[in-house]
Design goal:
single chain, 181 residues, two-stranded antiparallel ribbon, globular
């Protein structure tokens, strides 16, 4: 008699979170000891996907200048958001610097999405959708879940596809989303 699948999945999620906490604590100790540089992480771990970055912080994460970030935004290759009630201080969601999202994948999905407003792009990238088997576009592009939750076999199959296949699927979802808006 084995362990129920839902219990096994819960135990696996708990173990993953425990390991992430341990890695984080080790990294904090290494940083405080000066053993690790504090350059922003280029990760797709899910932690901080929506974390707002300044143009300078995003530039550092991408390895470009802040002027290049602004030029890419004007060209529709990046987007920024403005918090309600603010007139200055545009912010860039951190996931735009992640491997699997940064560069041509982001540019291609934004081209398919054709957002008239950056809040539409932000909402699309960060929301789960049935078009992607209950995953977010960020998760599909990176091939990893950004939060611990149970997903079905279709979602796991989608995450296991090649980066090129995942990009094509997200582009199609973006086009469908744009057509329905």
């Amino acid at each position: 008699k084995g362990i129920d699948d839902s219990v096994a999945a819960l135990m696996k999620s708990w173990l993953e979170v425990t390991l992430e906490v341990a890695r984080f604590e080790s990294l904090k100790l290494a940083i405080s000891a000066g053993a690790v540089a504090t350059r922003p992480a280029r990760t797709s771990s899910g932690e901080g996907a929506s974390k707002p970055l300044t143009a300078q912080a995003l530039a550092t994460a991408l390895g470009v200048s802040d002027e290049t970030v602004r030029q890419r935004e004007k060209a529709g290759e990046l987007f920024s958001i403005m918090r309600p009630g603010r007139k200055r201080g545009r912010e860039y969601p951190a996931f735009q610097s992640w491997p699997g999202v940064a560069g041509h994948p982001l540019k291609d999905v934004l081209a398919a999405l054709k957002p008239e407003d950056s809040s539409v792009a932000y909402g699309f990238f960060t929301s789960t959708t049935d078009l992607l088997a209950g995953l977010t576009p960020i998760e599909v592009l990176t091939g990893k879940q950004t939060s611990s939750r149970s997903v079905d076999a279709a979602a796991n199959s989608l995450l296991a596809k090649s980066p090129k296949e995942r990009l094509a699927i997200v582009q199609k979802a973006a086009a469908t989303h744009a057509a329905s808006a």
